[in-house]
Records
---
Amino acid sequence: MRIIDLLQKGSIVPTAQVNSKAEAIDLLVDLHEQAGNLADKRAYKEGILAREEEGTTAVGEGIAIPHAKSEAVKKAGLAAITVPEGIDYQAPDGKPSCILFMIAAPMDGDLHLEVLSRLMTLLMDMELRAELLKAQTAEEFLSALDARERERYSEEGAQREETAVSEKESTEAREGGYRILAVTACPTGIAHTYMAAEALEKKAGEMGYTLKAETNGSGGAKNVLTPEEIQAADGIIVAADKNVDMARFDGKRVYKTNVSAGINHPEELIEKIIKGEAPIFHREGDEPAEAETVGRESAGRQIYRHLMNGVSYMLPFVIGGGIMIALAFLIDTIAGAPRDSDFGAYTAAAAFFKTIGGIAFGFMMPVLAGYIARSIADRPGLAVGFVGGSIATLGCTFANVAGDPAAVSGFLGALIAGFAGGYIVLLLKKLFSFLPSSLESMLPVLILPLFGIILMGAFMCFINPAVGAINTAITNGLNSMGSTSQILLGCILAGMMAIDMGGPFNKAAYVFGTAAIASGGFNVMAAVMIGGMVPPIAIALATTFFKHKFTAEERKAGLVNYIMGLCFITEGAIPFAASDPLRVIPSCVAGSAVAGGISMAMGCTLRAPHGGIFVFPVVGSVGGYLLALVIGSLVGMILLAILKKTKTAA
Amino acid sequence: MVSKKLKVTNSEGFHMRPATNFANAMAKYSSDIKIKFNNMEVNAKSVMNLIAACIKFGADIEIVCDGADEEAALQEAAGMIESGFGEE
């Protein structure tokens, strides 16, 4: 809180015409009243006078600070007057008082002491006292005070932070800014994003630095870094598995890593910034923002990151559309509609859900391809990728541009379109780099969209027949798979969900599941989701029934895991897995695999790629699904109970 | 030189009244009296300095007295703080 935030221009009277302490107090109380700080003027004035009875509020050196902390104060504020000739305020040093600040403090909070402290610190400066006394207008008074406060607290704030962070300042808006900034993001944006932000903030606090972390979660960016904060910081940690807006960090030290490093090695990352080991980030023209870091990033990781960027944008369409379509079938089932080709759109309500859901679902491939391309080539990639994704769904070929059902390349085609789109745009940028700078602005508005889309179309028409055939083969393969191999597939996918709980294995299985939805393999998605639900539930059960295997803190976290598991947030299991990976992970994998296998064997289907317990009503053979969940969780729990060492006496 | 470490026990910390009383009480000693708080050394005889230091409830401080009457000064200073300046 700054002095000038509390002191309005209208509450300052320089060179006031007052002749006594009583007159000065009257004037100051009036100023508070005019500023709307008081709920009850008389009660407030009584508080001020009562305080003066106990002893003068003059502190010497010509300064007096009458104050009252009172119910009569509506909002905290300051009023100030100067009396150049001075009035007798019974100062301890016997001198007349000529600068008077009156504080109105509401009953709650520490504000009182902090305002006092800050005022005193500023007023100890003799030059400022002279300037305030000289001021003829409220503006002059305020600007002198403001200038000194800025000067003093921008540097002192920073110094004080380094020596002692016990003060609550680190969480308040600080004039000194943050020393370290961070951005965290993961593809799903539910758990990892926030865990990394918390780990970094906590560790920075322990190490005595100030750190602000922006979370780019599924609900959009929160706690967003401001340009001033970026300017003032030593450097920025970017712990992200998808792309974040990097352009704003131009010229700063930026250390880029994955989100799990933020969770597991916060100390290392913070030191990189503090010791100045992070490279300085430069944005070059319209180049993709991450070009700078390519050198340190393996090709595999790059592909993973682009892919996840696309998937994270695609998911909302699949979730919304998928659940709506599933509801349509549920409605028709309840209505007893005939199971013909019209099933799912037989009743009016079902038709509504199915059609709208279908429209949302239809965006799945274009959005996936578009955002993969955007991840690679920045904004110009988006249109090219979008079109490519659409071509993949339509199955356009040179022989049949209108679309050949056998050449619909589906999810696989959209993936290829996304990457192709991104690199086509990068290639075009290179090819046209000979353009004089006067024509450069033509690039994004004409050349990239036109040639990008032409090339994309040609490329997709060329590959569609081949990729379409592969896509059809996979779909047929999934559908015609014998029950044994289906169960095996369910076991493997569900197990993969539990291996790294949100890492690459988990995501690979998950993307496979969503891709299977697109080609009608709803049983695959069912196995995948249950594989992700089992680990947190198994752990939660274990903390409930085998308390002695866990610390008190873990037991508390265990309760949350029931909810996490039921909501299909596998990440809830991570803290447990991280603290004891060799015992926890195999238990979870086994539990998940069992559940996935049972789900497949029971023929459970799921048309929505997310939602946990909330989409159970639209699960096909939900009884079998629940059974699978229970058995899988129990298997996981029993294994945990056997494998884990006793932590506390029961 | 003598010193003593203690905790501020009154809920409002060193606000104006305790600071004024404390500074006035200390002014009668000839010794140098300082409060070490948050890596700062604060002149305990100055109301302004005491308030500016923003010493809150629960703060760990150290009183340092140096001079002819240091023992007596320390005793009174510690007494005032430990009794919470007669406040809550």
---
Amino acid sequence: MNPLRRRSVRDLPPAGKLAAYLVLGGWALVVLFPLYWLVITSFKLPIQVNSGPFYLPFVDFRPSLDAWRYIFVDLRDDTLRPYVNTVVVALGSSSLALVLGSAGAYALARFPYRPRLGMIALAAGCLALVAVAVGLGMPAAAAVVVAAGCFAILAATVGRRFRRTLSNGDIAFWMISQRILPPVAVVIPIYVLFQHLRLLDTRTALVITYAATNLPIVVWLMRDYFAKLPWELEEAAVVDGASAFRVFRSITLPLSLPGLVATFLIVLVFSWNEYLLALFLSSADAQTMPLTVAAQNATRGPQWWYMSVLIQIMILPVIALAIVLERFVSRGLLVGAVKG
Amino acid sequence: MDARLSRGGVSSAAAGEQARTRSQASLGASFVVRAAFIWPALLAILFVSIYPLLVSLYISLSRLKLVRGGFEFRFVGLDNFRDLLSGDERAHFLGVTRPPSPLGWLVLAAGLGLLGWGLYRAWRGGVPVAGLAARLLGAVAAAGVLWLLVRTLLADGGRPGTAVVTLVYVLVGVTVQFLLGLGLAYLLTQGLPGQRFFRVVFLLPMTITPVGVAYMFRMLADTGKGPLQPLWAAVGLSGFSWVNDPWGARVAVMVGDIWQWTPFMFIILLAALEAQDQDTVEAGMVDGASRWQILRHISLPAILPVCATVVLIRLIEAFKIIDLPNILTNGGPGTATESLSLHAYIRWRTLDLGQSAAVAYSLLFIVTVAALSFVNLVRRRVAEP
Amino acid sequence: MAKRPIPRWAACVAAASLLVAACSGGGGDNKTQSTQGTGADRHKGVEVTVLTFTGPQIAEPLQRRAPDFNQLTGANVKIVTVPFADLYDKILTDLATGTNSYDAFVFDPQWMGDFVPPGYLEDITDRVKGDKTLQWDDIAPFFRDFSASYKGRTYTIPLDGDFQMVYYRSDLLKRDGLKPPATWEDYLDIARRYNGKDLNDDGKPDYGSCIAKKRAAQSYWMSWSVAGSYLQATGTSQGAFFDAGTMKPLVNNQAFATALDVYKQTTQYAPKDELNLDVGDTRGLFTSGRCALSADWGDIGTLAIDPKTSTVQDKVGTVIMPGSRKVLDRASGQLVDCDATRCPHAIDGVNHAPFAAFGGWSGAINAAVDQKVKDAAYDFLSYMSAPAQSNEDVTLGKTGFNPYRTSQFSDTQLWVKAGMSKEAAENYLGAIRDSLESPNMILDLRVPKSAQYQGVVLDTAVAQFLAGEISRDQAMRQIEQGWDKITDDEGRDEQKAAYADSLNIQR
């Protein structure tokens, strides 16, 4: 039950309630009207769309199932395949991101990391060395071995002199800063990367890429959450001899279910709707739904009727999932329930 | 730049973090365990992020040419950046600058005054020289941005370039989204009947693919066959073509952006509000505090860290806005609605990879500075001990 | 669960099917066939992946006929589609990085300027010469000699004829005794006359002219349709973008200035957000009767007869792109009157230069794939273009294929069968024929980085000019400087050579 429910003892005065409902209703209207327009557009013929706004089916215009038939019957396979791909890729990448990300977030919230700035610079320098060597013609394996050797030697000798350290906050900032570059700048390098790995046009490539690009968000959202968790329970378990993994799995995760669910939803939405990376990493087999939506803009201009159908079938699973999971969210990203 | 944040653990947040984490570590988490928790995430991010970052950097310093058998990159140094900042692309990127109007002078003076006052306070507050130097640098950068904004936006005949337009989108968009999201989330924690319905409805816009949202708004905004036409006529705006007016078009983009991304703020702030510590809230109510007082003195401080996080995330994402200006007006009229990401995309589409990467890196630079400033100024103060 | 003995009949069936499978060669093994012979299984087991953009235009006929072709030849042709806006990038990234996931493309031959010099496309000159079913000579000379070839060699098979024409409301012009516009002044006069009147009896005022002027869409082609007849007069080889001898852009002179003024003036008689309309919108407006005039590719003709999209069936007339009585004198940069030497192809003193904008969707083959795959891909493209298939497809609006073969517009019956009235069909085909047979058709720009010349520099400057962000002279200077910069970047001599090659100028 919503712990704030008790507030209803001192309910809003009628004027306040009215004002609240006006605001809520107003925004609900703003949200729902475009969606309503979308739905009725999917029941219109091209001529009805182009001749001006018609608002009410059966009153203003005669609805037709033409667009729906085209998408589901004429284009059956071309609709089904991207749909399945989208579901698989989104669920897979979100789960992967959630697992890796919450582990990382927990680590950043509980363990002190003090990476030495010097060591990082050294590692970066050795990587650059590898790049230059390969660029100059050295075989990759040899370059990596040599660089690793250099790093080991330098780390053991000069490395001890490095004092300046970074904090967990710096690591977290570095993670979120990976999201700053717009996709357009990274898409071709990623394309070439997966081409070398022979993973182009596979769902695997998409899952890996989406998980990696959404990891920072998981880390940031869960880190705040874990930080707020009072850690007496964990402390007790650790004192009793439980390993960190055990604590994480049996105590922290169950307590943080609401936060996990909310984060999962957000990351799922991001993966579900990703366009540019999907465009380049897929060609025939791994195409996802955002591509089919964008593809409705062809040489004759956007085909609103087909597009509306596609958008609707794209939204429905996400909405369904959100409705199901919503009650987890309402129990809160930040727990207070432990105390109560 | 990261070192600035960790200077001896000065901030209370970092100190608190260290205090708490030290206990866990001291109770037995070994090196292996600590590595096992963090390295998978680090590796995944490194794998997919670092390589493109470096390659893009190289591309931004070169020009692409298609040759027999493939393509080649011709190194041109900082040429691409020079074009953007002082060459042919300057008007497109930064804008056309003109002497500020009286209002512009006012804003400029106020802004510079604020920066100066901040520096003065830091100096009097005993911040060490290195810190002062860093703040001075930051203030100079901020002053530069302010100067550019004033001379393009608040000047007769000035025209904002893609960098300025993007800044406007971000500042207005994130602010409105935050306030709206917070307001809606707050209202839905007041125990009103029917709130579950509203919660689901308010979540809807974010679930639609951005390309889909952009096309939807294009349909709506069409003055010929869009549904809002009678509304405009009723308000007397039927002669106004928003698409031909630079600011009209920009507002349309911002409306679409706000519509789509308010749910992001909403859902996270809602969860945060719901999870507040009930004892303090009840104590407040028992003591006779009004709703407003509870909000201001209890709820808001409690959720401030989450607010900071969510604003930071949204800030970073907002700078990358591309689908709405692209699909609503393709960056038009002229170049009025073009954002930095769209600027890079249009270049990239025609294989001008060098210029595209240069614009992307400029975006990277701007956003990093903005994010760092935000983290330093806001998040550090509100992050929990 | 106890094992039950397998019934004997099942065992027999299993054995039999194994036997059959073994004997049929298992699909992938049998790959011997001649290059272009007949024979039902000549491409047996060969997989061909063809890339184009998501339809239904262009993709639909390919997807519809691929199974037939597969049955005829045993090949396995797969059609893959991507969003239209990203087709160019997809193809180029695939080819330039050596990924080669696609064996053939149906794309815009304008892009040959980027694809041919690096050697990405297969030279099919000899195949085409020996191909009887293709009937190469039936294809209109412009598409045969210019659009499909580069430096004298053939690289693509045309599937569609794309050039722009002007459409008008024949019922209105007939009612008021007007002739279809022959010059741009006529166009503006007619637009002015009908602007603001109710043209489709719905009580709302309509527009004189609807041209797609949206930025980063098709506006830069429309602008060149207007400018073309001022710039090119002596034939396709003269070129309309640069001076072939010096590679100087033809954009900073009195002729282009006049064209820009005309282009901007059409906005006055257009919907107020014309600057945000792309072809989807303008076609929708025209076919719902809200425009008196429009300039567009061939799609309006077929869209107008489809009752699902049009309320102006039989009210649409087509005419060759309006021209000009004055043309550019390249030496002086001034507009001079047409005469017999300057405008040898003028009709009634008016120089027409129909613009084959974009070029007409054509099929090309990836030069880096296996020989057998190339053979199969060639046969498929040839099959699509052969009169037996093509002549039917060009009459269907949903295919997006417009006529490009002489045989296609000599027989009006096909079109009448598709739904046009005899008069409308003759009018439509007549305009197409006039355009196709014009020796002064403009070949779209086909040099490396053409997308930057047009899509970035020209498009941005025109958009800014139309929006009032910059003046006309500023726009012209901006285009000239931008184009010169790209030319110098690529190498002036190389670009000059490429330009000459694309125009098949013998050097």
